[in-house]
Amino acid sequence: MMQTSVPFQVEYDPIFWAGKRAFTGKILHLDLSTGEMHVETPPESFYRRYIGGRGFILHYLLNQTAPGIDPLSPDNLLIFASGLLTGTVLPGSGRHAVGAKSPLTGALASGEAGGWWGSELKRAGFDALVIRGKAETPVYLWIHSGQVEIRDAAHLWGQTTGDTQSALENELGSKKIRVAQIGPAGEKLSRIACVINDTNRAAGRSGLGAVMGSKNLKAVVVLGEKNPGLADKALMSVTTRWILGDYKNSMGWAISRGTSGSVLFNHNSGATAINNYRDGLFPGIEQLDGSSFFEALVKDRDTCNHCPVLCKLVVDHEGEMPIDRQYGGPEYETIGAMGPLCKVNDPVAVAKAHEMCSAYGLDTISTGGTIAFAMECAEKGLLAGFDFQPAFGSGQDLLHSIELIAKREGLGDCMAEGSTRMAQQIGGEAPDFTVTSRGQELPMHDPRLKNAIGMGYALSATGADHMHNLNDTFANFPGSDICARLREMDIPTPLPLFGIDSVKIEAFVYEIAFKNFLDSAVICHFYPYEYKHMVDAVNGAAGWDVTRDEINEIGTRIVTLARLYLLREGFTHADDALPRRALQAVSDGPIAGKAMTTEQLQEAMKAYFARMEWNSDGVPTKMALATFGIA
Amino acid sequence: MDQQTATLEVLFVQDRMPAPTRYEVAAGLTILEALETLGLSRQAALVAVVNGVTSDITYTLQPGDRVQLLPQIAGG
To answer: What is the pTM of this model?
Structure first.
């Protein structure tokens, strides 16, 4: 058994220790098969080129994994990466990224999470962890102030995230530790398992939890003592002063009820998918909106490091269906996936579903999407041979499905693979009504309303993903943060709501690059930062002289690297697609009769490729690669 | 209702449900022009639903139209 080896000791970088910059200058590489560790001290140019987060993840996947590896083999990397701005005084910087080759899609897995874990990783002396191999038996990592230990985790295996958090706090004698971990779903290699940190935040998508489980790695515990510093405090304060003076107005929605306050609005504008994408209206939706369930369920608010907004809900509920407050509360995506998608309008059942997914370590979007798919399979009589026949509208069936997925029992063993693989197992007409792109369940922004988001789902290297995307409804309103950024780049606003014209392609190119920059820096998308704010923040953090154009260049380089990774892993333009359901109009509600055609989607993607200087199959040309210094 | 006007119902996310602020505006304006007149075009994102149908912000208002302007929230 591998455990408590002699601690690997690393000295803090002297410039970081002196508080002169925001990055630690050290990246820890660790092989769980051998226990070997070494520290990389990349040159400053590396940080300026990749920034952190997704930029780091793509660098290591492209350079330190072979094409075609099994994502659940020891050959895969599991990368935890802070960003340049993580842990600084900048509001919205309490975030980090987790990445790997995805066991759900076979493409890129790259998720970001809020909380405190990423900031604490830096305080402990490291910008990122690059983990390879597989431990013989369950282990956890204990990283504290430059010391790294691999410890036995046999006693934690099988425990929920909440119980593991408590056990580690007792074992390590501190309530200040920060824990990133998997629950039972990741241990059982569910391809829709996530990595949870702080018990209530998730690097949710693409099966990162299964990669961690495949390495027999239960948790990564961090505790440090040195806050990231700044190269130029006055420059950083230009951005921090602006946002602290503005956020109560511009982020009033987040202060009010977080994303849970958008459920009814999104339903009423047609953004939310219902009944596995077959209906346009969902009776009882108002019961799932934050404005209705707040008083009964939400007992507190939570936030991330250096964030004054407190957008996170803390649900605390007693009664027949008790809900543990340590798991926080459901966001819009979770409410959409567990609620209208499965036709469940009981807020307690939906909040309980969120709690169970956090405790077991399951991605709520893919879990809700897979359950809705299973419900339709049952409705169509395709689940012969299974005792359990989950029904639309049943909160009990929703919760039982989650239990079965986490334990891989009965039907849950199929569902734990995600809806695409489950459909292949079931066969018949089942693959026709999966709602996935690149094998990943769609988020709760319906492409029949949001056409550019649909194109983003089809093209994303991380499978259907609403985060690094262009949100059409925001682009249609001149007061939005997206329109402010587009105007900075001389793009006229507002953009058309429906369709994808040449101006929207231009906007898509810039906005995808900016979001990829944010996911590398790693900054919260809820903050209405514009390029000029990021320029001051980055230069204040690192002492550089980046410009708006360089921010865009960094983001576009990362978009290009993600495309190269997709192509390297065997994907072709034929895989850039939306599922049939996302192209079929519903007959009622606010978007009745509306949907892109396959031809319109194809035409838009070709225009995007041309704008990116990629060929008509979406392969970056040598000229495009040269622009971003990619060999 | 004056047949030459349309009704805008603006919902603010901070409001308890559903308590729209109502404005009567001249038909013939686009929704965006009407919002600019009201000083509401630079607040956080709204999406327009005209007579129950989600519509572009540049839609030209017809007499008797009822337009809901719903806050938009990203991510989560």
So the answer is: 0.97
Residues A29 and A177: their CA atoms lie apart, in Å, by 21
Q: What is the pLDDT of residues A152-166, one digit of tens each?
A: 999 999 999 999 999
Contact assignment for B45 to A480 by CB distance below 8 Å = yes
**What pLDDT, in 10s, does the model give residues A481-529?**
999 999 999 999 999 999 999 999 999 999 999 999 999 999 999 999 9
ipTM exceeding cut-off 0.90 for this assembly:
yes
Contact in structure between A526 and A311 (CB atoms under 8 Å)? yes
Look at A480 and B72 and tell me if their CB atoms are within 8 Å: yes
DSSP conformation letters of A260-328: GGGHHHHHHHT-S-BTTTTBS--TTGGGGSHHHHHHHHEEEEE--TT-S---EEEE-B-SSS-B-GGG-
Provide the total of helices (H) and of strands (E) in chain A, helices listed first.
25, 17
Task: Tell me if A494 and B72 make a contact (CB, 8 A cut-off).
Answer: no
Of B32, B42, B72, Cβ closest to residue A473: B72
d(CA A420, CA A495): 34
H-helix segments, A408-530: 411-415, 419-426, 451-459, 472-475, 481-488, 502-521
Residue A261, chain B, CB below 8 Å: the answer is yes
Side-chain half-sphere of A599: how many Cα atoms within 13 Å?
0
Note whether A526 contacts B: Cβ–Cβ < 8 A.
yes
β A178-181/A128-132 pair status:
unpaired
- Asked if B72's CB is within 8 angstroms of A479's CB, the reply is no
Nearest CB to A477; choose among B45, B54, B75 = B45
Residue B72 region by backbone torsions, left for phi larger than 0, else alpha for psi between -120 and 50, else beta? beta
Angle value at C-alpha A575, between A452 and A625, nearest 5 degrees:
75
Contacts of B32 in chain A (CB under 8 A): 478, 494
- Inter-chain CB proximity A474 and B74 less than 8 Å: yes
- Say whether B44 and A258 touch across the interface (CB within 8 A): no
Query: Please, where are the H alpha helices in A523-597?
Result: 531-542, 548-568
b/e A196-226 (16+ beta carbons within 10 angstroms → b): bbbbbbbbbbbbbbbbbbbbbbbbbbbbbeb
